[in-house]
Amino acid sequence: MSAQDTPAPVFEVVHLAKNFGGLRVTNDVSLSLRPGDRMALIGPNGAGKTTFVNLVTGALKADAGEVRLNGESVNRLDPIGRVRRGLVRSFQVTRLFLEMTPAEHVALAVLQRTGRSGRMFGNFRAMPDVMEEVEEQLVALGLHDLMHRKVREIAYGQQRLLEIAIALALKPRVLLLDEPAAGVPQSDTGRIEQALAGLPASLAVLMIEHDMDLVFRFAKRVVVLAAGAVIFDGLPADVARDDRVREAYLGSYAHAGHAA
Amino acid sequence: ETVKVGVIGPFSGPFALQGKNFKAGIDAWFATHGNKVGNDTIEVIYRDVPQPDPAQSKSAAQELVVKEKVQYLAGFYFTPDAMAVTPILKQANVPMVVMNAATSAIVTKSPLVVRTSFTTWQTSTPMAKVAYDQGIRKVISVVSDYGPGVDAENAFKTAFTALGGQVVETVRMPLSTNDFSPIMQRVKDSGAQAVFAFLPSGPTTLGFVKAFNENGLKSGGIKLLAPGDLTQESDLPALGDAALGMLTTFHYSVAHDSPENKAFVEAARKAIGNPVELSFPAVAAYDGMYVITKMIAATGGKPDAQKAVDAVKGLAWVSPRGPVSIDAESRHITENIYLREVAKAADGTYYNKEIATFEKQDDPGLKAAP
Amino acid sequence: MDRTMTAPLAAAAGRPALGAGPLAFALLLALAGLGYLLFPDNLALLTRLIAIAFLVLSLDLVTGYCGVATLGHAALYGAGAYAAGIASARYGIEDPLAMTGIGLVGGALAGLVCGVVILRAHGLPQLVLSIALVYLFHEFANKASGWTGGSDGLSGVTTGPLFGRFEFDLYGHTAYLYAVGLLLLTLIVLRLLVRSPFGMLCRGIKEDPVRIQAMGASPKAALLKMYVISGAVAGIGGALNAISTQVVALDSLSFTQSAEALVMLVLGGTGSLFGALVGTVVFTLFEDFVSAANPFHWLTVVGLLLIATVLFAPKGLYGTAADWIARRRARP
Amino acid sequence: MQTVLSIGVDALAYGMVLFVISIGLSVTMGLMRVTNLAHGAFAMIGGYIASYAARDLGLGYGVAVLLAVVGTVAIAIPIERLLYRRIYGAPELTQVLMTIGITFCIIGIANYVFGPTLKTIPLPQTLREPVDLGFRTIGAQRVFAIVCGLAVAAALWFLIEKTRFGVKLRASVDNAAMAAALGVRTQVVYAVSFAAAVGLAAFGGVVGAELLPVEPYYALRYMVTFLVVVSVGGTGSIPGALLACLLLSAIDTTGRYLSPEYGEFFFYLAVIAIVCLFPRGLIARAK
Amino acid sequence: MPATPLEVEDLSAGYGPTRVLEGVSFAVPAGARLAVLGRNGMGKTTLLASLAGQTKRYGGRIRLGGADITPLSTASRAHAGLGYVPQTRAIFPSLTVEENLSVGLKERPLSALEEAYALFPRLKERRRNLGTQLSGGEQQMLSTARTILGRPTVLLLDEPLEGLAPVICEELMEAFAELARTGDTTILLVEQRIQMALDFADHVIVLERGRLAWSGTPQALTADQDTVERLLGVGGLH
Ligand SMILES: Nc1ncnc2c1ncn2[C@@H]1O[C@H](COP(=O)(O)OP(=O)(O)OP(=O)(O)O)[C@@H](O)[C@H]1O
Ligand SMILES: Nc1ncnc2c1ncn2[C@@H]1O[C@H](COP(=O)(O)OP(=O)(O)OP(=O)(O)O)[C@@H](O)[C@H]1O
Ligand SMILES: [Mg+2]
Ligand SMILES: [Mg+2]
């Protein structure tokens, strides 16, 4: 890739490392995202993908390495600070407020983003701009009908979609999606794709996914992690041809070929 | 005419036993004297304030006055509960007869307060003389860290140092103390010849006395001296042999030998049900009823608080505890304080045996107050 | 947009059915008036009840809305009571409004202190921190007897007339009306608060603080804020207690008081202001009636009430009733 | 030096008594996740039964202890079936409400049946003699409590960590529905564990009666102490509870010796410090 | 032929006041592989959970190997031979991997754990770790292995492939097929990736708003593009 006409990276990770006891979960990982990047991070189970997300968002403390946003190190920032700088994630295992409604989830995100989450009066339902955005976001992910149901009462697949709606409502600059489509039926993965396709071009997205069809439709670049280390970093078209990747991860999927 | 008396006390909760004693004393009064004063009938209304809670005590008192239209307020086991009610007496035109609360200052809070019980100063002070007379010169004081405990400490210390003795250390321990071993170690290390102790009656006294024995203080010849709260009759069966020989000073022993007391104890035991539960609050309640009947007689059953109180100033009579009188100035009871020893009766029960008398003791705490 | 379709669902989604704003307040006002008419001789009890209601409401703010487990909330209430009491007894500040204000500040400060400590843990350890704190407060007040009167209680509190005109007398009319006024005002403010974005944030924190962090909000800061607010509310209650009874004693910042408040809250139902009120009213009146009827066995009866509540109204009296009504309405 | 040793002995004895009484609570709270505030009430029932058996019926101490444990369990089982079963997995606060209610009832009933006075459990002669440790004497009863504490700790640890039953219990607590789907009869597991916890409470109530005397308000009076000890140690962790009991009793005893008037301060400040340093207990069970 | 391993008759179930399933009936022959399909929120999970005895039942019967298990508790159903792998994985967080597995053993000896390790070597490496410390995929393996160890005659799998790497998915599907073939285990599979489910199954049912909307063979479903589009919301199966 030539550096002349591509913008500077918004998100960079350099020599990141983490051990759990004796287990090396993240082994000298470096990668970067530029505005507009659509990257997929794949790899066998337990390769350290979620750990990677936890490290860069600050949920876990790295043993070594640096995380930069817009060229500035955020190592010192806590998870909240990093979110405020535009680094947003979704959770692989849904973390939602079971007693609250989808509308409230998204509204919280919008209010937080616009600096109004500490307001002690008024109600989001009476704030037209918030409501508009909430509806927009929920319509996009097909959750509009459920907007005032308790999350406890909606099916798992729908919760997964809400997880993404929240992340999008935070209008991030760098978005880390941890298996956004897991548990979402095929009929609805289309919604995720559409939502992602509708994102502003300047946003950098990194997606972890095991659904290879989705990966190949979405990603412009693929990074493969195995045993904590990057074993492949390149174009989607090349990934299936890589022996190590095939053996460690893809299996016969590579033979079947993908919709290219 | 019916004259209503409102009695506030702990009738449930951890202190229910004390409230029961109030009731037993009052019932004993009615059993022996009837509920009539002239043409007036006395009716007692009880209100429960289970634990020290002045707000509850005050609202109970207000309700008794406003709704039940009581002419007398009585009872009050805890000082703060009594204190809370004193400000309304005047407006309510109601005298208050304190049947237990033992802080000296209560009677100063309103001219309408009369007390028929005792104060901690009053029961603790004579112990200093007992100790000194036994040749004890160095004493360590160990008290529970709350109002009455502090009163006891001050009372003893004042009197003992005045006699020429020395209080080598004063230890105040939290009310919640369960394990007294470290305290006993401290007593040992202090080199004192005797311990002056004050704990509220109840479960902790047992642990205290046991620790005193188990840690070798009793066998080491150290004396345990205390006001009678520590050997309250209802705790004696549990204390058992552990308390044998313990010296206490107090205004009343259920075993007091007099015809008045025999009659009282018989009536009160019947009222309380279980005879071992009878102890000192009952006698104050009994005498409190005596004072109230005198007040009713003086006012002819009409509400006139000041007149009622004035009528009993200087009143003297023979109570089950011995001869007593109401001090005209302080309106606190002047009474004998007895030195008692825990002894075992022929039937295997334990009792406080009176072995010496300090006659006509008033409340030294009032003079000592700043 | 099919908002019309989702509107009834919103009602069904567990929002308190009686929470319908002004109506509920009118109802409350009517009840307060009824109390005045029905128990004209018992106003002291009703006033005490309202003071406790402040404590329970304040507890609801942190427990019901934020999920902070505490058995030490009376520390805030007692701090307010002592602040107001000491201001009057030692500094001669006798104006009830000023005393209320001082109680509010005292409570808020205590809230800050307790919040900083309590928010360091979660769940059971948090409960233990709160217990430890309330004992420390209690011990402190006991030790500082020069200021607080120690275990004898702080007496000598005097309250001047309200607005310079209405005396706090034996019959307790002024105290009761003042208490009702304060309560309504506080309820209105709290209702705004819990429905505001901040209130929603707190409910989110209650369910999953990590999720809130991932949204970029700081759970700790929000909880601390709520703790201070809660302290202010409890402080008002404490001050009200000091004003109306003119004594303050150690029981006002005791573990027992805290535990009782928690019981009342859970009895009524956590997470709604009306639940807190219902719990306080039911428990206090029940206790009063039963203990008047049979002081020797009321504890057993209260115990049975609590057990029955858990069995038959697991979300608390108000919470279960509100659920039931909501379900009835949701049915076509 | 003597003083230090002596304080050490006192701390150990007090700590072990606390441990014996509260360990059952650690099981209910940590493993069954029931905030059982009625734990002390069951300890109290044990105490009453033992006192009745030994003092009023004149039976031997050993028999009294046995009767206390069996009798308390027998009383607890219907309570478990009717009441506790309804609050497994319920929110903490609901459990608090229910168990406080149970405590109130038990207190009320105990008060009614046995009266409000203190009850003692006469010790056999061997436990009454003071034991000479060279530098001081200590009640044999306390030595007995220490031994009991250690034995209980070892047995319980083995049961929970090393047996299939322990695994089933922990699985049922983590996720009762899933455990049932794997064939675990969760109700039986719960009932057995509850009975064990209650039996331990009763045992502790009897063994500890010398320090914490039996009376109706026992159940409320010491509730906080038990709760604090168990959570400082880390609920459900046997070694944690043991450590917490010893540590806290050491702090308490030392504070009480050096400066009794600030004893409470020391104790609760220490509790705050420990909880802040180890927010999940000294030895936390992972969740 | 032995008795039908699983028969569902007019089953209606849901949560509290919410009814989700309405009159679902079907039967599965021994060793069959049944795919349960349906769009988001149509009641697939509810169906499986109802079979396992974890929902409120409003009506209908369930027979396992001819015996009526409708009144039985979840645990008794497990002992009767029903194995359930829930969608949420339901790992016991405070148990180690090994302990998690041993719960599934019922009364079998601990040595039987090797079966699970043979299927998922990754779990053996992590045997001393706590359930919560596992990666998402590892948890999925653990959840499945745990249930298989109980040797169920009817195995209910709710999206067992979620979050698993493609290689593992293949291996696992083969293992399931093997189980059905040799162990006479009847398998009900809920799976989002329709093609994968169809490749595996020999029979399909489709749920639509809690009702049985279609049932037949995979071939028939593939042929019926109309139904596929209407009920499953996707086009172009092959
Ligand atoms: N707290 C922890 N302690 C010990 N090991 C851990 C901990 N957290 C994760 N691990 C281990 O680290 C490895 C990487 O986990 P991670 O969750 O990052 O995997 P992943 O790549 O996201 O896998 P999957 O695709 O299955 O979600 C796993 O083997 C996991 O068991
Ligand atoms: N606990 C619950 N309480 C009330 N309703 C519920 C509950 N769980 C699920 N539902 C409702 O039941 C319906 C069916 O849910 P179910 O989980 O069975 O769907 P599913 O087909 O498994 O969906 P998915 O593919 O998303 O897993 C949904 O509409 C959902 O809203
Ligand atoms: Mg992962
Ligand atoms: Mg599902």
UniProtKB/TrEMBL annotation, chain A:
Keyword Aminoacyl-tRNA synthetase: no
Protein name (record): Branched-chain amino acid ABC transporter ATP-binding protein
Family statement: Belongs to the ABC transporter superfamily.
Keywords, comma-separated and alphabetical: ATP-binding, Nucleotide-binding, Transport
CDD domains xrefs: ABC_Mj1267_LivG_branched
PANTHER family xrefs: ABC TRANSPORTER ATP-BINDING PROTEIN (PTHR45772:SF2), CONSERVED COMPONENT OF ABC TRANSPORTER FOR NATURAL AMINO ACIDS-RELATED (PTHR45772)
GO cellular-component term (any): plasma membrane
SUPFAM superfamilies named among the record's database cross-references: P-loop containing nucleoside triphosphate hydrolases
Occurrences of domain ABC transporter (ranges): 11-252
GO molecular function: ATP binding; ATP hydrolysis activity
Alphabetized InterPro entries for the sequence: AAA+_ATPase, ABC_AA/LPS_Transport, ABC_transporter-like_ATP-bd, ABC_transporter-like_CS, BCA_ABC_TP_C, P-loop_NTPase
Automatic annotation (TrEMBL), chain C:
One GO CC term on file: plasma membrane
Membrane topology category: Multi-pass membrane protein
The organism's place on the tree of life at top rank: Bacteria
Regions that span the bilayer: 20-39, 45-62, 74-93, 99-119, 175-194, 227-250, 262-286, 298-318
Key words, A-Z: Cell membrane, Membrane, Transmembrane, Transmembrane helix
GO molecular function term, any single one: branched-chain amino acid transmembrane transporter activity
Subcellular location: Cell membrane
CDD domains xref list: TM_PBP1_LivM_like
The protein's name in its UniProt record: Branched-chain amino acid uptake ABC transporter permease protein
Origin species: Azorhizobium caulinodans (strain ATCC 43989 / DSM 5975 / JCM 20966 / LMG 6465 / NBRC 14845 / NCIMB 13405 / ORS 571)
Automatic annotation (TrEMBL), chain D:
Keyword Cytoplasm: no
Main subcellular location of this protein, as a coarse class: membrane
Keywords for this protein: Amino-acid transport, Cell membrane, Membrane, Transmembrane, Transmembrane helix, Transport
Location within or outside the cell: Cell membrane
Domain of life according to the entry: Bacteria
PANTHER family: ABC TRANSPORTER ATP-BINDING PROTEIN (PTHR11795:SF442), BRANCHED-CHAIN AMINO ACID TRANSPORT SYSTEM PERMEASE PROTEIN LIVH (PTHR11795)
Membrane topology: Multi-pass membrane protein
One GO process term, biological-process aspect: amino acid transport
Organism listed in the record: Azorhizobium caulinodans (strain ATCC 43989 / DSM 5975 / JCM 20966 / LMG 6465 / NBRC 14845 / NCIMB 13405 / ORS 571)
Recorded family membership: Belongs to the binding-protein-dependent transport system permease family. LivHM subfamily.
GO cellular component, one term: plasma membrane
Coiled-coil stretches: none
Lineage: Bacteria, Pseudomonadati, Pseudomonadota, Alphaproteobacteria, Hyphomicrobiales
GO molecular function: transmembrane transporter activity
Tagged with keyword Membrane: yes
Name of the molecule in the record: Branched-chain amino acid uptake ABC transporter permease
Transmembrane segments: 12-31, 61-84, 96-114, 143-160, 188-212, 224-250, 265-283
From TrEMBL, chain E:
SMART domains named among the record's database cross-references: AAA
Gene3D superfamilies noted in UniProt: P-loop containing nucleotide triphosphate hydrolases
Keyword Transport: yes
Domain of life: Bacteria
One Pfam family, short name: ABC_tran
Domain ABC transporter span(s) in chain numbering: 6-234
InterPro entries to which the protein is assigned, alphabetical: AAA+_ATPase, ABC_transporter-like_ATP-bd, BCAA_Transport_ATP-bd_LivF, P-loop_NTPase
Keywords: Amino-acid transport, ATP-binding, Nucleotide-binding, Transport
Keyword flag Cell inner membrane: no
Signal peptide residues on this chain, from the entry's feature table: none
Family: Belongs to the ABC transporter superfamily.
Protein name from the UniProt record: Branched-chain amino acid ABC transporter ATP-binding protein
Organism: Azorhizobium caulinodans (strain ATCC 43989 / DSM 5975 / JCM 20966 / LMG 6465 / NBRC 14845 / NCIMB 13405 / ORS 571)
